[in-house]
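Two proteins were folded this term; both appear here.
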Amino acid sequence: MESFLPMLNAIDSFLWGVPLITLLVGTGILLTVRLSLIQVVHLPRALGLILKAKNRGAGDISSFKALCVALAATIGTGNIVGVATAVKVGGPGAIFWMWMAAFFGMATKYAEGLLAVKYRTTDERGEIAGGPMYYIRRGMGEKYRPMAGFFAAAAVLVAFFGIGTFPQVNAIVDSVELSFGVPRIVTDLALTALIAAITIGGLRSIAEVASRIIPFMAVLYIVICAGIILMHIGEIPAAIALILDSAFTGTAAAGGFAGSTVMMAMQNGIARGVFSNESGLGSAPIAAAAAKTKEPAEQGLISMTGTFIDTIIICSMTGLVLVLTGAWHGDTAGAAMTGAAFSSLYSSIGGALLTISLALFAFTTILGWNYYGERAVLYLAGVRAILPYRLVFIALIACGAFLKLEAIWVLADIVNGLMAIPNLIALIALSGIVVHETRHYLEKVRRGARMRK
């Protein structure tokens, strides 16, 4: 397989270059315009709905738990390693372009959540089934059934060989071994047993765990980063100025940093932002479809807060920590760069804090993607395929710590990109439906407000 690596790298570079980034950002811009800046105008309502949604309607889990499942998959190693990689290659300016990707991505995530609820259905067991494969087929028509199948097949491959398994398992076992000296096989066995116990229970089990871990790990990471930011509070204006200036002028070489162009900052910032919050990839709407709600637009609003929390808050804090501490132009890269930034305040326990954060982020990503892959398998092969899928997924977790074929990583990257294409086409094709549903919902909200007066 390694002999195909040069060809796979070329495909990966092309796919995640200008064409897909243009489609991703272009879709977000289109939806932002057609929805009249919904991610700005209605963000306060969206944030309020996280805990106040009525949860009355068909669905398997509450809107909050559906958001937690989606956040479980999106808040992962990309928030730590991905941001550091983007800043290392693209300079501080990459953070600005990450913000831009998230801003327009919020409109994309809103549309995904809305369509997921509008076109969801039930499986043979009476459980909710939804996501891009359903809104492609039911929204665009039966003639697009092959495109829906293509999306589902790509989602299964990503769950098995991409975001859902190997990168997360390796991140956990490597960081635990490095920080605490625990042998890889011990960590891997414990991780496999834990994943098996949770995922065999299905969505409700995953949602219950996610709803408990996600708030804790997000607050923990924010507090860790806030400590470093407060230590450098006087330098924040200069750091913001550097981020904005580097976004449009590039970054000169400094220390171990080779210098970057505006295009490098833009490409790395947007790509890493999308990898982190998954807006447009079509993963989050699979979880959104299971929410107990009668209003597709309401779940869309809740869904878009996922991108806000993931990138605007968590990724931004990582980026600011890297810039404020100067770790971005040191000799380290990836998780080691973030570790160096943490150690600037927390000294010897900085590495342990990073390991705990990384392990929690990676663990919840495995849970979220297990569910995404399961729903895709359900679409392709029916209920009978769910148990075999779960067993294969658990087996891949068990051997994931010992597989380091670079070609598998690159292939997973490619499949991840291919998963986004049919979803983005559907979002553009069904954007009129999204606008209509949004206007209908907002009019109901206005009428309700007038009646209360």
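Next, the second protein.
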Amino acid sequence: MKSDAPVFRPGYSVFALILLIGLALLAAFVQVPHPAAAPGSLNGADVAWMLTATAFVLIMTPGLSFFYGGMVRPKNVISTMLQSFVALGVITVLFYFVGFSLCYGDSWHGLIGNPLTFAMLRNVGTAPNPAFAASIPFVLYFAFQLKFAIITPALITGSFAERVRFKGYLAFMVLFSLFIYCPLAHWTWHPEGFLHKWGVLDFAGGTVVHISAGVAALAGALVLGRRSSHLRPSSFSTPNVPYVMLGTGLLWFGWFGFNAGSALGANELAAVSFVNTNLASGAALIAWILVEIVRGGKPTAVGACTGAVVGLVAITPAAGFVDYGQSILIGVIGALVSHAAVHWQNSRTTIDDTLDVFPCHGLGGIVGMLLTGVFAAKDGLIYGKTSLFGYHVLGLFIVVAYSFVGAWVLLKVTDRIFGLRVKLQEEELGLDLSQHEESTYHIDEEFERTYRRDPMTENANQLV
């Protein structure tokens, strides 16, 4: 007779645990230099603001988990939220050991950083690094940039929500961060990065974060295919609108650190980008609601929240480079483009981008990047200068192509090694139970015993 306890199948987890223990021992006992700040080398106001901004950006990832968790079926809420939340741990460790070096280490032909330059925060201490931020501890710059690295792969999860295997997602998240996010950050934000040298502007991550995540999300939706529920008529409606609104509020709040923090100090630029962030988001919120009404519907809370987030995405690359009124126009254009793309994708294609990540984050970031080239003070297209806009268009093609092809390859590799798509029975059961044995609903003891014995039985498949 089978035991009621689940069969222990460690698989790759034993190797991962041993690796983590080994890395922890390495970090604890290998001494690396951490230069201390000289007296008078730091600006107290800048340090205080950047500590605050870093905490703001951190809260965005839990906010994203509520935003996404509120838009999936009740049986997938926990798994969807965890896919965002787990990045707080995985990317933190990855960035400490190698990610920060790949982004900001000694440049190799403007393409990637030396992985050993800042490995385990080598030469990253309280002393400032003038190449990146001259008035704050370099370790604080690391902490700030870490939060960007955390939320980027979490954004992708909305595209394949409700059907991705947890271990496959973890593997893809690591590969995406190493092979797509880190190179893009180096190209764009490192002084020697080739996009940076071209003059391509990305104030706070429209290119590095949102375009890369949105395009990778499109690749993810195509590789994993459509949900079983997407293949048949469904009466599903958003189950938890308050979660969506809470997530939006946390994202909006954290975005002030995301954008204004990218000024890297308590200065005029931070104030301008702070205000531009709010103006664009507010304008996009209104635009999205008005389009809903014009199309014959009623204003919805989810629509208002989606519009606000799209406005935040669109202004991100431009926040420190444009005037206040231009930020409103950027928010409105971003909302109109994304709304049209969401409608077209869901009504005219078979692409199952579960939470519309590509239309909102991918296209929102693309709109913001192009309009930065149009409106950027003194160098934008409206000032009669074409060079900046031309480089933005060229940079856009490179980033989109690299992100899509790279994500597609990484997804295929991950699928081959770990498996990405859950089985049909697991999908019907819900990922909360099939992947994590947790649920927001009461599960009776008889079912739990049946599921633990054989999760692929017909009985388990029938309980949804």
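The mean pLDDT is 92. The chain has one domain: 42-229+240-436. These notes refer to the second protein only.
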